[in-house]
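Action item from last meeting closed. Structure (403 res):
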């Protein structure tokens, strides 16, 4: 036993102890280095910081998407308001019907109470107790009339019951539609806020230098759009001058009739010229008159803030401004850009007149009011005010003459 114990002791001294603190620490360190190396090798590379140009493109796209979501919000809000009016009207009918039903119920209750108090006589008993056969027949006739009235009241009560049930069903359906419209309104609102929040987050991460570069890019974009508008203005001026020259040549070539002053050639039908002033020839000058009211109203709103979902008088979104402006001319436009583009007559960009509506982007999410010379008045986007701007600042979808 002693030799065996001595043998175990010598092995312990001569060997390396596996539970040595130094060896355990070294092993853990090696394992950690290996693990970190493996994680570093497998980790995805850090996402590169977007360039200012990429931020500008992304922000512009988010604002455009927010514009589309705003139109969806406007549509849902309009549907909600309509459903509220419908529900209110139906509930009013239900209340009136309930009053009629209660009145019929009270009348029937009176009949029942009278019969209970007075009891009922059979025809034989009535004849026996009558003072005379004549009195019996008079009493019978009166009871028949009373029975007819009771039957009429009962029939009216049943009709009121059926109508009340129908109106309650309609009220339930209207309330269901209202609930759906309110849900769509909340979803649209959240969508708008999400898009605008994403745009703000992108802009907030820019450094001061990047913000200045972004502003420079914006100025460059505006300048390019302005140059296009100026070229359009010169083209319109040349066309107008050429039309006036041709009109004067025509007047000079036509000898005046006997006893007729030459000024009679300036009738509305002969003075329209090019697309820049044909408003006087549209419905006998009616369109030009309406457009003047529209533009006067729109110019008075310049400087007021863009607020999505707003339709005045202190703030506007794009379609809210166009709707309010044309209302001044007696024309009721729908609320959304998607509906406004379907109103009136489609016109090409080259034939635009002041007052026409110009729509932008493939999703028709923005609209402005043409004022001539390639310019428009519009409510641009969050953070901006109603202003004049070139119609070439955004991709044009199409144009409409509302009246």
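Sequence:
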């Amino acid at each position: 036993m002693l030799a065996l114990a001595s043998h175990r002791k010598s092995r312990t001294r001569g060997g390396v102890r596996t539970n040595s603190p130094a060896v355990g620490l070294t092993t853990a360190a090696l394992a950690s280095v290996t693990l970190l190396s493996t994680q570093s090798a497998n980790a995805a590379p850090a996402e590169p910081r977007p360039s200012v140009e990429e931020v500008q493109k992304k922000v512009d796209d988010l604002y455009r998407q927010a514009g589309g979501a705003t139109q969806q919000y406007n549509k849902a809000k309009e549907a909600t308001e309509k459903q509220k009016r419908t529900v209110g009207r139906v509930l009013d009918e239900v209340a009136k019907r309930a009053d009629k039903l209660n009145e019929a119920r009270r009348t029937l209750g009176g009949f029942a109470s009278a019969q209970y108090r007075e009891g009922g006589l059979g025809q034989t008993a009535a004849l026996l107790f009558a003072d005379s056969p004549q009195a019996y027949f008079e009493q019978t006739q009166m009871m028949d009339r009373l029975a007819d009235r009771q039957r009429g009241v009962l029939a009216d009560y049943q009709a009121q019951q059926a109508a009340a049930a129908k109106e309650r069903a309609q009220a339930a359906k209207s309330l269901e539609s209202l609930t759906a419209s309110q849900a769509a309104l909340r979803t649209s609102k959240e969508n708008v806020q999400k898009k605008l929040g994403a745009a703000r987050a992108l802009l907030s991460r820019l450094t001061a230098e990047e913000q200045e570069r972004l502003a420079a890019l914006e100025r460059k974009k505006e300048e390019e759009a302005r140059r296009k508008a100026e070229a359009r203005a010169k083209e319109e001026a040349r066309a107008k001058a050429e039309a006036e020259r041709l009109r004067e040549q025509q007047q000079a070539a036509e000898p005046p009739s006997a006893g007729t002053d030459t000024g009679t050639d300036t009738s509305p039908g002969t003075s329209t010229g090019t697309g820049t002033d044909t408003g006087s020839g549209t419905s006998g000058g009616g369109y030009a008159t309406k457009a003047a009211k529209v533009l006067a109203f729109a110019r008075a709103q310049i400087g007021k803030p863009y607020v999505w979902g707003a339709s005045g008088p202190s703030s506007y979104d794009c379609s809210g401004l166009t709707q309010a402006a044309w209302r001044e001319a007696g024309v009721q436009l729908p609320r959304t850009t998607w509906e406004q583009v379907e109103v009136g007559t489609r016109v090409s960009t080259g034939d635009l007149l002041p007052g026409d509506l110009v729509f932008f982007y493939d999703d028709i999410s923005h609209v402005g009011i043409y004022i001539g010379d390639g310019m428009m008045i519009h409510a641009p986007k969050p953070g901006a005010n109603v202003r004049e701007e070139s119609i070439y600042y955004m991709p044009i979808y199409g144009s409409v003459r509302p009246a």
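Note appended to the action item: The first strand starts at residue 345 and ends at 347.
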